[in-house]
Amino acid sequence: MSTLTPSRTLGRSGLNVTPICLGTMTFGQQVDEATAHRILDRSLELGINFLDAAEMYPVPPSAERYGDTERILGSWFASRPGARQKVVLASKVAGPVRGYEWIRNASPDLKTSDILKACDDSLKRLRTDVIDLYQIHWPVRNVPMFGAIYFDPAREKPGSSIHEQLDALGRLVREGKVRAIGLSNETPFGVAEFVRVAEQHGLPHIATVQNPYCLVNRSVENGLDEVMYRHGVSLLAYSPLAFGLLTGKYDKAGLTGGASGRLAEFESMRKQRWGRPEALAAARRYNALAREHGLSPTQMALAFCYTKWQVTSTIIGVTSVAQLEEDVAAWGTVLSPELLEAIDRIRWEMRDPAQ
């Protein structure tokens, strides 16, 4: 395993992070507080300096556990003097929350007051004075996301403008509550428009976009990567193991055959893009390819993300210290040109089934 160092810069922000980021959305649901603290301790020992959270975590979201992930991080900071200064901390404000009555009364919009209050609430739960990277979790406007693949003009609706959202984020930066800003689950148009509006009005330039990127969903490469490259925006790749599909644990028994993991344990997760039969079929092909080349499926899937030029930092989500160590051990794995060609052949045949 190569040594992890905070050698990657998030966009133009000046924030330097490790190429592996610890995602925390399992904390409070699949992972209890004591285990979460052990995972966080070990992540520091392994050299990871980048943590990602969100106001709506853990997932699957619920009224009972809303905010618990940030609270667990806050309790860890409080019990580990100096830990906060060792990490770059990211969190997110939820976009329009139709269906989640416990978040802003299921508001269909994200107004200035919503962003400001959400940030203040996150700061309290996290027990910190500043969030290093504050992201909009998903767009306010009508876009295809979370498994939808077609833009539908008939779904247009009123909502706060990109200018209003940027202005609110800029206010948080000016007040010292946030150091840099980012987006998540965004489109090429969205990234380009946030950059244009920021330049037009002298507002903060977005540093990052956090989108899914893995062997069964390479939609980032369908134009978003060019936009990020030309505008100096970094990709934070989430779900590199496709909710466990690319670990191989579902290969034999399928999603309901008794394996442990979010897709097996939560029916709501199986209804999303990762639970599609086509996604599992493609994952089985990639997993078999990894084994043919003497790698574990996890090794190959993570190495694919770790070594792609598009990716600044890969967000790993774990439920145990052992999983954390396995994911970090994959850093430094080199995929041969022949293996990369074979990966591309499968993608050409099966495309992006978990898009």
Automatic annotation (TrEMBL):
- PANTHER family to which the protein is assigned, alphabetical: NAD(P)-LINKED OXIDOREDUCTASE SUPERFAMILY PROTEIN, NADH-SPECIFIC METHYLGLYOXAL REDUCTASE-RELATED
What this protein is called in its record is: Aldo/keto reductase
Q: Which residues form the NADP-dependent oxidoreductase domain?
A: 19-346
- Extent of the signal sequence: none
* A GO molecular-function descriptor: oxidoreductase activity
Q: Where are the transmembrane segments?
A: none
Q: Which UniProt keywords apply?
A: Oxidoreductase
Q: Which Gene3D superfamilies match?
A: NADP-dependent oxidoreductase domain
